[in-house]
Amino acid sequence: MLSGFIEQLLDAPTIPDIRAVFLRAVGHLGFDHFFYAARFMLTVPKVLLRDNPVVFSNLPTELIEQAQKLRDLDQDTWVEWVRNNDGDIAAQDLQDLFGPSRSLALAASHGLGHARIISLRDKVLHSVGAVVVAPHPGADADHLRDCWTRSGREVRVLAWVMHMRIATMQRNLPKVTLTPRQREVLGWRSAGKTVGEIAVILGITAATVEKHMRLAREALGVETTPQAVLKAHVTHQLFQPAEASLTLGGKR
Q1: Domain 2-167, CATH 3.30.450.80 — does that match?
Q2: In this structure, what DSSP letter does residue 89 have?
Q3: What CATH number is given for 180-245 in this structure?
Q4: What is the pLDDT of residue 175?
Q5: Contact present, 145 and 23 (Cβ < 8 Å)
């Protein structure tokens, strides 16, 4: 059973497909509700790239809408715990140890106060994430404990696989905004060529090279050319991956 769900997660082509597989999997393991949130590429400065967080769940719409109105959720108790700890913990145990959580209290008001929180810290380099799973509304601490004792290992593995799969997917990065000439100029600049050398290579004037660099910086919303090179690279606008070969010596 576990291997089948893992295979489906690895084969899922889109994030909605991943969500559907994970929902079926944890439901089969006794958890009717879940919440997933993650942010990737944390080492890239925000001025260069804001990789949108990936968030999805099957929590009640009313609960989600109420949670969105809460302020400073990045400082909430369970979020702080996820950032600083590995492993998993029951929501009630977390609050007993580290203090109350506004979002977990809100979940409790919808009958989902007894949940298990899984930290995904360090499961993927330069990322942070968490999965929260809960049994049916109104489930008590004993029911959560029984479900986790029976299926906790499988839920953890599925959460890890889902998180790693999403990390490898093309997410909501900025759309391509550079012209072919701007990409060409930035490509040569990233190779260490000077403005004068790029002008000779491309057969244009140095002033035209400078113009393309300026327009590229403006399009990418950065201040310097090195920032433009980095942002163009991490948003897949600068270099295209080489076609892979599985034959010996890299030859077909």
Answers
A1: yes
A2: E
A3: 1.10.10.10
A4: 63
A5: no
